[in-house]
Design brief:
6-stranded antiparallel beta barrel; 239 residues; alpha+beta; Threonyl-tRNA Synthetase, Chain A, domain 2; 2 domains
């Protein structure tokens, strides 16, 4: 049974009621709906807590998809944190909002970075303090201060960030929307989520993002590394 991924429609939703629908052999908990973002696209899964009706608290250390089409999410308890649960038991799920919001801000900043450097993306990682994108760039000479200045202008522009859905067929007809070379958006469900930073960027992405670029805050490119003949790694951090 697919998990209702509430974060896809509202990244700002911090908590929800849910029902246990299954378990994994390692103790992972599957819910009918969740606000927990599951690890994908270079963004780690959320931390948080599940609280039972009787008041038992289960610390969640991660959330992961169980299938390639990213339809079912398993909530991974921290070591020793699991409490006895049964199928059909009601719970209340709450994410670690400070951690989630930092990653939302950073993930949005990485989209702006990919707009400044319009090259194929070969890899990336979203963190709460610093992140990176790897680009397929044949020549070096990237100026980290110049990139930071462009990012700062985009952030100050307070551009709207919005999402919409298109069909898998529409994406296949517009392959230039896909910037990542190593990770393709899942299309098994028949639809794909687009994230648009108005005036700057449009690409398929299942991650969590802020509503406006001004929410990102101050960021800077801290390092540009040569990672092979063509790859350039650009590191970004909050300052």
């Amino acid at each position: 049974m697919p998990t209702d991924c509430l974060f896809r429609e509202d990244s700002y939703l911090k908590e929800c009621s849910a029902t246990v629908i299954g378990f994994k052999p390692d103790g992972g908990i599957i819910l009918d709906r969740t606000v927990f973002y599951a690890t994908s696209g270079g963004q780690p899964g959320d931390h948080g807590v599940l609280t039972t009706k009787s008041g038992d608290v289960i610390l969640i250390a991660n959330a992961n998809f169980t299938d390639p089409d990213k339809t079912e999410i398993v909530h991974v308890p921290a070591d020793g944190a699991a409490a006895p649960l049964t199928v059909d038991e009601p719970l209340h799920a709450v994410v670690d909002w400070e951690l989630r919001y930092a990653r939302m801000r950073m993930h949005t900043a990485l989209h702006l970075l990919s707009a400044i450097l319009p090259y194929p993306v070969t890899g990336g990682s979203v963190g709460e303090a610093e992140s990176r994108l790897d680009f397929d760039i044949p020549e070096a000479g990237l100026d980290k201060d110049a990139i930071t200045q462009k990012l700062t202008k985009m952030i100050a522009a307070d551009a709207e960030v919005r999402t919409r859905w298109i069909t898998s067929a529409e994406l296949e007809a517009n392959p230039s929307l896909i910037k990542t070379m190593s990770v393709k958006p899942p299309m098994g469900s028949g639809r794909v989520r687009l994230v648009e930073i108005v005036g700057y960027d449009l690409q398929p992405c299942g991650g969590t993002h802020v509503h406006r670029t001004s929410e990102i805050g101050k960021v800077a490119v801290t390092q540009v590394e040569k990672k092979g003949k063509l790859n350039r790694r650009v590191r970004l951090a909050f300052v």
